[in-house]
Fold this sequence. Notes:
The structure holds three protein chains of three kinds.
Chain A: E1 2-11, E2 14-24, E3 29-33, H1 40-48, E4 55-60, E5 63-64, E6 75-78, H2 90-100, H3 105-118, H4 134-146, E7 152-156, H5 164-181, E8 184-189, H6 192-198, E9 201-206, E10 209-214, H7 216-221, H8 226-231, E11 236-244, E12 252-256, E13 264-267, E14 276-282, E15 288-290, E16 299-310, E17 314-321, E18 326-332, E19 347-352, E20 357-360
Parallel strand pairs in A: 3-8, 3-9, 6-7, 7-8
Antiparallel strand pairs in A: 1-2, 1-4, 4-5, 9-10, 11-12, 11-14, 12-13, 14-20, 15-19, 16-17, 16-19, 17-18
Helix pairs in contact in A: 2-3, 2-4, 3-4
Chain B: H1 6-29, H2 46-53, H3 55-88, H4 95-107, H5 110-123, H6 130-154, H7 158-166, H8 171-200, H9 203-208, H10 216-224, H11 230-271
Chain C: H1 2-29, E1 32-33, E2 40-41, H2 49-59, H3 63-70, H4 72-105, H5 111-123, H6 126-137, H7 142-150, H8 163-188, H9 191-199, H10 204-215, H11 217-232, H12 236-242, H13 249-258, H14 263-295
Antiparallel strand pairs in C: 1-2
Amino acid sequence: MIRFQNVTKRFGTFTAIDNLSLDIFEREFFALLGPSGCGKTTMMRMLGGFESPTEGRIELSGKDIVGVPPNKRAVNMMFQSYALFPHLSVWDNIAFGLRRDGRPKADVEARVAEMLKLTRLEKFARRKPHQISGGQRQRVALARSLAKAPKLLLLDEPLGALDKKLRQDTQFELMDIQEKTGTTFVIVTHDQEEAMTVASRVAVMDEGKLIQVATPDRIYESPENVYVADFIGDVNIIEGRATPEAGGEDDTYRIDWAEGETPLQATSATRFDPGQTCYLAIRPEKVTISAERPEGALNAVQGKVLDIAYLGNISTYHVELTSGTVIKAQTANTRRISRRSFTWEDPVWLSWTVTGGVLLAG
Amino acid sequence: MNRLSWFNTVSLTLGFAFLYIPMLILVIYSFNASKLVTVWAGFSTRWYGELLHNEAFLDAAWVTLKVAVFSSSIATVLGTMAAYVLVRGNRFLGRTLFSGMIYAPLVMPEVITGLSLLLLFIGIGLDRGVLTIVLAHTTFSMCYVSVVVSSRLVTFDRSLEEAALDLGCSPAQAFRLVTLPIIAPAVISGWLLAFTLSLDDLVIASFTAGPSSTTLPIKIFSAVRLGVSPEINALSTVMIAIVAVGVIAASLVSKRSLVRQQKDEQEAARAQ
Amino acid sequence: MRRLLLIAVPYLWLLALFLVPFIIVLKISLSDIALAIPPYTPTLDFAAGWAGIKAFFAGLDFENFIWLTEDDLYWKAYLSSLTIALISTVLTLMIGYPIAYGMARAPGEWRPTLMMLIILPFWTSFLIRVYSWMGILSQEGFLNQFLLWTGIINEPLIILNTKIAVYIGIVYTYLPFMILPIYAALDRLDESLIEAAEDLGCSRLSAFWLITVPLSKNGIAAGCFLVFIPALGEFVIPSLLGGSGTLMIGKVLWEEFFSNRDWPVASAVAIVLLLLLVIPIVLFQRNQQKQAEAEQ
């Protein structure tokens, strides 16, 4: 439905978007994820019509929309600051866009009522924006941008101003509304958890480039490079040299990673040349911690507990290996804390399976 | 907060006494029966009566009011436009000159502004009268308006305008329906400032007024040059009273709306 | 198109009614006085073409400026304007600072009222405020009556029509301009800084000099400029309170223009006054800029 074709955007000498191509499909909940300054907001503003690309085409339903002013686009935006008009009531804010279309009064009233119902704001219709809470304001902004039934809704850090608890509730609400209305949502966020929760597909951006575009589980389980692995969630990265395992299966590699340590084993669909530098990314929850060397484990290393971060539901152990490398391992706290098996300075074994880690080229 | 120390109490008391006693004396002695302004001879409203029958003063007051209304209204429109251009406008040819011309009249001595405008009016053969004073007052007060309005525009959340565009407004509609209602308080205080500046101005009006268009300050000035007079005291009292009532009313209104807003916000926070 | 109109209207207005008149002043200051209407030569004659323009420029000279340097009157007027403006600025600071300080230390609920009381005189007619002092300072005025009554003096003091009256007038009318920026600076000042200084061994007074004053420096500078710049070109105060003995450049310009009808000299006086103002204005601008940068 949306197609970015070789889009480049420069501000003076600064390149915000660098020759980027991307397709977004109908009814998708698409997230643009990246650190601040990565160009995700610029992408969104180009979709909204507030910026135009320096080079390239942006198509909406097959038509080039570059140069179409924002008020002529079937695209609406929910602003990070919500941008609710302070001098208008909630009702008038939601009706604002409908009135601009010159719709009959009865139509406007019906549509506003529908939107108020959708966002559960019926009680607050007559209030002014400063008379309602932050979460309600967020819903007004959503209702206002959905009122015109746009083909595409842009959400710029829509939950950034809410506290954590409210944010989580609102995330599910957003998904629910997206499903009900069938609108294509594009959300911009720097919060990876949020992107993973709400989106059906996530684009990880950095410095004006797309790093990886995939579903949340693929982004997490099989990142394409160290940047994505490191950006999304917690990860242990071990640098080493890959050698195809003789006699083993085709896609198994031996990784020499430190003097005097046993080589590690991992499988990878991508090919590595013998001796090529590689990075093994292992999520802490895939690392098992035990007192004895587990039998039959292909990847096992020994170290001592350096630090324990107790997070309630889980604990993260920082384990220092003999080579000095620190590896994080997570365990679910199924027992009470007083019955914890390991404490500081305890010698422990860490192990993971051959498929537990992902082998990356860079 | 903490209580005032004796030093602060003394300096505030003396400071406000210094600011208000001269005006207070003026007001009290406007009700003096004697023609000698410094000798109290009993209460009387005689001078107010005479003021009402002084055609020259009334004419001048009428001229002043007309000039103030017209000049401040034009200045508000021009000043708001200028502020918008300065804050929102991208670069254009002569932007530096433009902003220079906005700020220069603020620091320009009035005698120079008056002189230069007079020389212009003579140069182009424009007869001096109400029109020339309006032109002159508009020119310097639009700069004040634009400073007041642009300080509001700077803090204006630009995404409000973008949201209006996004919801289908043309840029002009966005300005009329969103920007203007929100910056209205600044525009109104700009108008008030321009209005009082115009009412108050002696020097520039003296240069640009013709014989048939004397303003009140010019009249007062030529009268007080000769010395203190009870009639001027009465006139001053009337003017002080109008201003005091206006300012106090305005501050009460703004205070009330502030209090209401705070209450609303508290309630909203509680409702959450 | 609309955008162009938005820029063009105020732009052209200012060009026509600010810049052009200013250029005319500059031109006339280089012309000679003549018994004609307009009373100066040369006049620019576009009908005569290029020759007319050349003749026009040939007719311009710095005679009026030389005249200004030769006649004592102007020298003295510039110098006395500068000293009067400077002294009144210092006086205004000395009176304004304690008031601003007291306001900043006042209980929070008083502050809006105090603020309004400072601003209120600003909305009142300038002329009336100056005039109110005429009745107070005159020989049989209230101040003398009061002082004679208390027995502090035996002879009435002569204050009106002296420089002292001018100082009082300037301090009185420009006091709000000094108080407001200083108050704004002091209001922002974090009380815990003073407490920290005292905790580290400062006395109250040294905490004031070492912490409060440096941190309100920008407010002080802004206030001083806001008083000094208009005071330098002041006309109403010296002519109502200063009498004939007080020379100030704004008054000289006025008299040169209205009484002597010498437009070229009046224009030259104006140009020199502006040159005097350039330095404080540039300093003020830089101060404001620095402050704006510091806030970012």
